[in-house]
Amino acid sequence: MTQPFTEDLITQAGGPEWLTAKRKEGLTLFNSLDVPHEGVEAWKYTRVDVDFASLRPHGKRDVVQDITALPASVQKRLTSTDVGAYLVLDGPDVVYRTELPAELSAKGVIFTDLRSAVEQHGDKVQQYLYSVVPAEVPDDTTIAAPGTTPSKSPDPSEGKFSALAAALWTNGAFVYVPRGVDVELPLGSFRVMSEAGTYTATRTLVVAEENASVTFIDEQDSEALPGTYAIGAVELVLKQAARVRYVSIQNWGEGVTHIQRQRGDVGRDATLNSLVVTMGGTLSRTEMQSYLRGQGSDSEMLALYFANKDQHFDHYTLQHHAAPNAHSDLLYKGVGDDASVGVFSGMIKVDLGAQKTDAYQKHRTLMLSSDARNYSVPQLEINANDVRCSHGSTTGPVDQEQLFFLRSRGIRQELAEKMLVTAFLEDVLTRVPLRSVVEYIEGIIAEKVGAA
Question: What is the rounded distance in angstroms from the CA atom of residue 342 to the CA atom of residue 73?
Fold first, then answer.
């Protein structure tokens, strides 16, 4: 069978030998696997119809001199953001960026696009790239220590799209924070696409050394782009006592298929706070995984989503406890309207020996339409005998008494629904310390219910 992608694409990408070898591993895996389908448990409720042979890579873009040359939605977002430094990617190219503050550069902090990082900081990139989201499928669900070769696993969810991201990524973001350095202002990457009928593959790598801290905001935005695919991987490396806050806001335009795996490798006494916001695209599959490697490690996994029209949003999560005395807390809240579909599949996995694990998982969905559908599959896999783990899921309609109360006070339908939706999502929003992010999310919610 003729393969849709060949090693010629890897040769054209260039780069050092180690990177070319990793890309080839990913491509070999991609070409050997089927597209995930309903027969695979991890994809039971989501089908991706894609003809890879017809796809073409997103075209190259030129650097712009100021933000007025960027799409209007991106301009609006950038003028209201409070990040300390950011870069804007249009397809494979950085089209605009701001500089990292001099005092952070002097402390050894690195923030640049991944393609430049391979050229300028190749030793650090080689040490960590593919260490958390590998280029091949592991033999068990264990992740190797950063800088070593991952072991293998038969998990089919590792599959085809992660392999494609490993093989054909064109760019992304690279953040490196040295030992003991606190980056107070957030750093950000704003990804846009401007060409329909194409694909783009990106990769983000964030490394926080011992006792370092950083917040990284990863945003995606576009106009309507029929038949367009955004595929990516995010690797978060947290050494001992490091603190990382990772925020992903997906607001692609109609017609975009978004598939991304985000995984954190959390060391001893380190803390990972993640927030996944899904609002855009026609089909979105986001996988958020925390690997609690070290004793005393902590992971907070938050998400909120609002699906309307014919949107299909699938969230697949893993809280993997590999060490004793670790804590994880997951709270995912979603809203379904019109004929949309929401899927949540979450696993708490506790390894043998991971005693004193303290893990929680909660998923709640608010349904605004009787035509919307929601599938929720919370799961536990416990291999230790001294743990505290709980999971739960609820799905229900808008409280008609609450809606009537607001309407009886002269509040129009759309605004009343916005108020109820925002109140429903409030316990996630209140955990987000970034005010500009909260205001941006509230604005998207208002647009979806027609109250903007």
Answer: 26
CB atoms within 10 A of CB 236: 26
Q: What is the pLDDT of residues 381-437, one digit of tens each?
A: 999 999 999 998 999 888 888 888 888 888 888 888 888 888 888 889 888 888 888
Q: What is the distance of C-alpha 15 from the center of its chain?
A: 26
CB 345 within 8 A of CB 36: no
Would you give the end-to-end CA distance of the chain in angstroms?
Answer: 51
The CA-CA-CA angle for residues 231, 114, 155, to 5°, reads 40
d(CA 407, CA 416): 7
Burial (Cβ within 10 Å: 0-12, 13-18, ≥19) of residue 394: exposed
Neighbour-count burial of 154, counting CB atoms closer than 10 A to its CB (0-12 exposed, 13-18 middle, 19+ buried): exposed
The Cα 450–Cα 452 span in angstroms is: 6
C-alpha span between 16 and 132 (Å, rounded) = 20
Token pair 């070409």 in the structure block, residue: 31
pLDDT digits (tens, 9 = 90+) for 210-223: 999 999 999 999 99
Q: Smallest Cα–Cα separation from 22: which of 173, 162, 210?
A: 162
pTM over 0.90: yes
Q: Looking at the DSSP assignment, which residues form a beta bridge with residue 247?
A: 217, 275
- 345 alpha carbon, distance to own chain's centre: 15
How far is it, in rounded angstroms, from Cα 375 to Cα 76?
Answer: 35
